[in-house]
Amino acid sequence: MTRIHLNAFDMACAGHQSAGLWRHPEDQGHRYRELGHWLELAKLLDQGGFDALFLADVLGVYDVYGGSRDAAVADAAQFPVNDPTMAISAMASVTERLGFGVTISTTYEQPYALARRLTTLDHLTDGRVAWNIVTSYLDSAARNLGLDSQIPHDERYDIAEEYVEVCYKLWEGSWEDDAVVRDVERGVYTDPAKVHDIGHKGKYFSVPGPFLCEPSPQRTPVLFQAGASKRGLKFAASHAEAVFVSGPSPKVVRKSVDALRAAVAEQGRDPRSVKVFTMLTPVVAETSEEAQAKLRSYQELVSVPGAFALFGGWTGVDLSELALDEPLTYADSNANRSALASFTTADRAWTPRELAEFIGLGGRGPVFAGSPGEVADELERWVEEADVDGFNLAYVTTPGTFADFARWVVPELRRRGRVPEAPEGPTLRERLGFPGPRLAPPHPGASYRR
Ligand SMILES: Cc1cc2nc3c(=O)[nH]c(=O)nc-3n(C[C@H](O)[C@H](O)[C@H](O)COP(=O)(O)O)c2cc1C
C-alpha cells in the first residue's frame, strides 16, 4: 500500500490560510509569539504521526487588495509574522522524529549566510531539516528590502539556480567527511587539507572561501520547492526532492504533477523520486454530521476582505476591481503565476463570489469535512487522482485541526497501511523514503561531493 506523507502547514503568524478564523474561541494562533505554543504543537505532531511541520514565510505585507494593506492588517492575514526558523531547534529538543520544513526565499539573502543557518539547524535537529526554496511574490517585500519593485519573475528563478549551486558547493564540496580530527596530541582540530575553498564566481554571487560549518547529518537539507509556473517547474525538475503544490481539485493539481514528473524524467531523474505534497484543510469529527456542523460554524467566521487580501498577494490580482460575478482572466504577473493559473486556465475561470467562498477557509487548497473514514477516503482519492505522495494539511484553528487529525484520521490511515506505526529515519530525508541521509546521484547536488 502506498505510503501517504503528512506535513502540518503553518506559519509564524496568527492567521495563516483561513482568514478571520483567529476569532474562533478555540484558535490559539495568537500564541505564535510564545515558545510554549510551538513546543506543544511539535509534540502533538511528533506523537500524532505527522512527518514534518512545514512553515511558510513571507517578507512583506499583503497590500494588493484595494491598493491597501488595511484588510490584511485588520484580519491578521499573515501579518504580523515572525521569523520561521527561530523556534525550530527548541521544537527539535522536545521531539524524536518530527521534521521541520522551513520556507526561505533565494531573492533577499546571500547563499553563504543562509547555508550556514540551515546547516546549524541540521546539526541541532540531528538531520531533520528541509528547506522550502521559494523566490517570493510580494512587491511589498521587494520595496522594503532595497528594491523599487520585484526582480522579474523568471530572473528570480535564474538567481535561484545559481543560489543553489553555491549552496551545493558549500554543503557538499567544501568539507571532506573526515576533516574534523580533534587530534589533541598534534594540536589539530580540523585538518586544513580537508577543507576546501569553493571558488565560486558567477553572475549573481561571489563566494571564494570555504564553508563555515562542518558537515551536518544530511549535509544538504531536504530540498522542497513551491512554485509551479513554467519556469518554476524547470527549477523543480532539476533541484527539488519534494514539491509543494496547491489547487482546488485533483484535476487541476494532476496537471501540474504530470508536467512536473515529465520534467523530472527529462533531467534524467526518476520521476517517482520527487515527492509531491498538495495542500488540503481537513475538518474532522467522530461522525459526518458533526463534521458538517463544525464546518458550518467555521464558515460563519470567514473574513472575505482578509481572504481577498491573501489572494491579492498570491496572484497580484486586486479582486476589488472586479464585479462579483466577473470571471477572472490569466495574465503573466510578477507574483505567483501558478496560483493564478489554478483559478483561471487550469480548469475554469472562477469569479470573486466563488473565490470568496472557496479561499476563505484553507486558502488555495480544498477543505474537506467528514468522519475519520470519509477524510481518509478523500485523501486516498487525491493520491489516486492527483498522483500526489502526501499533504500539507492547513488548519482552520490551531492546534485544533491538527489535534483532530492526529486523533481521528491518523489511526484510520494506519489501519489502511498508509502511515507506518513507527516512522522511518532517523533523518528527515530517510523518513520521506529516500535511501540515505544525504543527497544521492543523479541529483545535481550530489555531483559536488568530494
Ligand atoms: C503551494 C505553494 C506555496 C508557496 N509558499 C510560499 C511561501 O510560503 N513563501 C513564499 O515567499 N513563496 C511561496 N510560494 C511561491 C514561490 O515563492 C514561488 O517561487 C513564486 O511565487 C513563483 O511561483 P510560480 O513559479 O508558481 O510563479 C509558494 C508557491 C506555491 C505553489
From TrEMBL:
Residues 30-384 form the Luciferase-like domain. InterPro entries: Diverse_substr_monoxygenases (IPR051260), Luciferase-like_dom (IPR011251), Luciferase-like_sf (IPR036661), NTA_MOA (IPR016215). SUPFAM superfamilies: Bacterial luciferase-like (SSF51679). Residues 419-432 have a biased composition (Basic and acidic residues). Residues 419-450 are annotated as: Disordered. NCBIfam families: FMN_nitrolo (TIGR03860). This is LLM class flavin-dependent oxidoreductase. It comes from Amycolatopsis dongchuanensis.
